[in-house]
C-alpha cells in the first residue's frame, strides 16, 4: 500500500476528492459510496455501477474522478468501463435528458415526466431518438431531493420539473 492510500484508510472521514470543483452533489454521493467500500480498488465495478446510477452514464470526468479516488490508473478504469456492457460511456444523442427516479422524485411525479418524455420522443429510457438528437436516461437520486422532481438537461440540474416544462426544454433545443 502506498503512503497516500494508507493515510486515507487511517482517516476515512477525509475523502481525497470530496470537493469536486463542479459543486455537483452527485460527486459527494459517489464519495460516500467510495468511502463505504473503503477505497478498495477491488470494488471498482460496484463503484462504477453506483456512478452510472447517479449520472446516467459514465462520462470522462466521472471515470477520472473514480480513478483518482481509488488511486488506479485511468486506463484500468476505462478498460473495465468499456469491457462490461452494463456500462455506458456516453449517450449518443446531441442532447441528454436524465430523469431522476429516486424516491423523492418518484413521490413528486418523476414517473409521469418519464412516461410523457417517452411518449413525446417515441423512445424508451436508455434510448436515443432516431434523429440522434436526444438521449433519455434515468438516474437514482441526483442529490437534489429538495427540488424534486429533478431532471438534468445537458448537464444542468433543473428542479421542480413537470412533464410540460421538460418537454418545453426539448422543444426549444431541437
Ligand atoms: S431522489 Fe431525485 S434528486 Fe434525490
Architecture overview:
The termini are far apart. The longest helix is centred in the first third of the chain and has 12 residues. The N terminus is likely disordered. 47% of the residues lie in helices and 10% in strands. It has two domains: 66 residues, Arc Repressor Mutant, subunit A (Orthogonal Bundle), CATH 1.10.10; 79 residues, Glutaredoxin (3-Layer(aba) Sandwich), CATH 3.40.30. The protein has a four-stranded mixed sheet with strand order 2-1-3-4, sandwiched between helices. The chain contains eight helices and four strands. It has 174 residues and is an alpha+beta fold. It binds FE2/S2 (inorganic) cluster (FES).
Which descriptors would you attach to this protein?
174 residues, alpha+beta, Arc Repressor Mutant, subunit A, Glutaredoxin, 2 domains, 4-stranded mixed beta sheet, 8 helices, 4 strands, 10% strand, binds FE2/S2 (inorganic) cluster
Summarize the structure.
This protein has 174 residues and is an alpha+beta fold. The chain contains eight helices and four strands, in the order αααααβααβββα. The protein binds FE2/S2 (inorganic) cluster (FES).
User: How many strands in all?
Assistant: 4
Tell me the structural class.
Answer: alpha+beta
CATH homology-level superfamily of the largest domain: Glutaredoxin
Q: Ligands in the structure?
A: FE2/S2 (inorganic) cluster
Sheet-strand content, in percent, reads 5-15%
CATH class of the largest domain: Alpha Beta
Number of domains: 2
DSSP helix fraction: 40-55%
Q: Judging from the principal axes of the Cα atoms, what is the shape?
A: globular
- For this structure, the quaternary state is single chain
Q: What string gives the helices and strands in order?
A: HHHHHEHHEEEH
